[in-house]
Design goal:
mainly alpha; 8 helices
């Protein structure tokens, strides 16, 4: 649906009468109806949705109140489904594009930022979220989280190497 929506309906943003409605329609494919946590959705579709959300952020001054309310409903629905960096990026771009950052707890938003700190979009995303002043703290926290993950993996690897092999 998203691919056909993008091909048939997506026009330059100046030509779209209600860009918010178009974006929300396309975003239905990010977490399709009946989607449950752990299911796999085509990553190409999600990347296209993220691109739409980035563009949506550029026209957010034209977002109609009913579109903003629908975006808020989607964001509330999505926040508990974030499992990877692409989903986190989509969620954060939805908040930015719909001007909903102030509607959510900053700690909750920053928890999702931890999933995207290694992406090339991270610095601009942090500025758009209004958290640029917390950059050093966030980077230290993310680095510590990453280092802990690497250390766990290394310990597991060493344990397996040091365990005596069972005779067959």
């Amino acid at each position: 649906m998203l691919k056909s929506t993008m091909k048939t309906k997506l026009k330059p943003k100046q030509a779209v009468g209600d860009p918010g409605k178009l974006v929300l329609e396309a975003l239905q494919e990010f977490h399709p109806p009946g989607f449950s946590k752990g299911e796999v959705v085509d990553s190409e579709i999600r990347r296209n949705c993220v691109v739409l959300l980035e563009e949506f952020g550029r026209v957010r001054d034209r977002v109609e109140p009913h579109v903003r309310e629908e975006a808020k409903r989607l964001a509330v629905e999505w926040k508990g489904r974030v499992e990877n960096s692409l989903e986190a990026l989509g969620f954060l771009q939805l908040l930015i594009g719909s001007d909903l950052v102030g509607e959510f707890d900053s700690d909750e938003i920053l928890k999702h930022f931890d999933n995207v700190f290694m992406r090339r979009e991270a610095p601009e995303l942090l500025r758009a979220l209004g958290f640029a002043h917390k950059a050093s703290v966030l980077l230290l926290r993310a680095h510590a989280k990453y280092a802990k993950k690497v250390a766990k993996k290394e310990i597991t690897h060493l344990k397996h190497r040091m365990m005596p092999q069972r005779a067959k």
